[in-house]
Amino acid sequence: MTVEKYMMKLSDKTVGILKNFSTINQNILIKEGNKIRTMSTMKNILAEANVTESFPKDFGIYDLNEFLGVLNLAKDADLNFDADAYMVAGSGTAKIKYRATDPSILTTPPDTFNAPECDIHFSVPEDIISAVMKASDVMQLPDVVFSSNGNPGVSITANDLKNTSSNTFTQVLDIDRQPFDCTFKRENLKMIAGNYDVNISTSAGVSQWVGSDVSYWIAMEAKTDG
């Protein structure tokens, strides 16, 4: 085998996906192949993406933000995964040797995932979900509620469900769906910006968000009485 077989560059899109994944979990196990996956430490968010690069071997990263910062030290670096426990990044006169992390100390997704049956389906444009997320952040509203009363329109509301006098911000999707109501914590909605097809399993209490580059499984909040 030649060293060249292991040489690669990371595209801007892949770097952007890794930055997004770092908000879900600071560590990651990049596995051989062209799919990267991560899972939150609470195991309530699972994300995966198919990328254009094909990684030649498994490579554990304990601090993903640090790793991305290291890549910035050598702009447009060639990555060499030939060494057993290291990645070598080189660009011009700069060369960086970065050690892989033992996978046993990382939080990694299961190899297989049995997706539940979903009974609610709709699409959310980027501008709608971005507006709700921005309002949630600006107004410090921790909950995001998706609901329909059976009439045309699905409401997406940033709210504070523990505060009966809370400010709210609502966007309405002009679509017709059966009645449903589901709640997410804003802090769990970590999707990269984009349009999403949303599939909800009301029985399992989880949702799937399918974008053009990345898909996520995100747990919903349990309903409480009163």
Spatial strand sequence of the major β-sheet: 3-4-16-15-14-9
Structural Rg: 20 Å
Tertiary shape: elongated
- Separation, N- and C-terminal Cα atoms: 65 Å
Largest sheet: 6 strands, antiparallel
Beta-strand level of the residues, as a percent range? 35-45%
Order of helices and strands: EHEEEEHEEEEHEEEEEEE
Task: Give the helix/strand class.
Answer: alpha+beta
Low-confidence stretches: none
> Helix count, per DSSP?
3
Provide structural commentary.
The chain is of the alpha+beta class. It contains three helices and 16 strands. Strand 7 (86-91) and strand 8 form a beta hairpin. The longest helix is centred in the middle third of the chain and has 13 residues, at 126-138. The N and C termini lie far apart (65 Å).
Key words describing this protein structure:
alpha+beta; 226 residues; four-stranded antiparallel sheet; elongated; 38% strand
